[in-house]
Amino acid sequence: MARRDATGSATLIAEHRHEIRNLFAVILGLVSVSGRGRTDGQGVMRDIHSRVQALSHAYQASQDQPEAGSVGLGDVLFAVLAPRRAGSRPIDLTGAPVDVPVDAAAPLALIMNELANNAASHGTLSAPKGRIDVSWTCVGSEISVRWQEFGGPCVQSDTEDTTSAVLIRHAAQQLQGHLSREWNSAGLCATLHFPMRQP
Amino acid sequence: MLFRMLPRQPLLRALAEPSGSTAARETALIGRSILLVEDEMIVALDLQIALENAGAKVLGPMVRIADAHAAVQDGTNPVQGAILDVTLNGDDVFPVADTLFERGIPFVLHTGQDDAAALTERFHGMPICAKPCLSRTVLQELGALLI
In angstroms, rounded to a whole number, what is the distance separating the alpha carbons of residues A91 and A138? Predict the structure, then answer.
């Protein structure tokens, strides 16, 4: 019995070490990805801060779940986006409860964070009366998350940070989905589609 | 507490410094088809961008053993080198590594586990990069095998 306990705790320690190493690897990768080709140190630092925070908020949301292995989609979105709401420029979240596998939390968080960063730098959060509605639906086996900006610039911005676009594309691929964007009369409308997988 | 939990790093670097000059190791990747197997998105993205910047053609990133295996078996685009995350969604990458090893295709093992000694024994001559490891270092190790 004692031996079995010792084996169990050795396994736990090994798993814990693996997780910590992976976490450091992710942070190292995030720093490299964020800084590559950039010369504006302050801007890079802001991007790294926001990306690490988004991952941290998503992690916290996944820890707060009653069931291991899954996380509420709305909980992840709220955790990442609530700190980005600023006074008169709100971000509203609407959708029925739906659970996603816990490994979807990080890519979801990164995508939402990049959209929020872009909105803050040249989208609706840069406008005095801008606001964002984020809503999601789950129809059949597909989840759609719709990001609609109001009161922001209505034309496609060509100042988009390429790192941001690359991060979004890869995060969406990780979810086996894709993000489409269009600019309607209200502003940017981005929709993320990805297949529902069992947590 | 965090740092007490961290394992000691094996002294692999001291044992096996990659061969060739830094410049030769970097240019060795130009035009090569490199299989990238890594399930951690950010780590994969960093390695993918680094490989592309070094002029390599990236196959992947693959997040499933079956996909990586299919890429190795696919004769239309022969794999010339690989970066393999040792643990992929809880499965180990050994079936893919074994096939590459049998065919003499060089690869770097990128591991977050305390398994360097076992890996060295099983895949003699293939470098091991313990995570966290800079993408530049991983590429240098791979480049040294392709000179």
Answer: 20
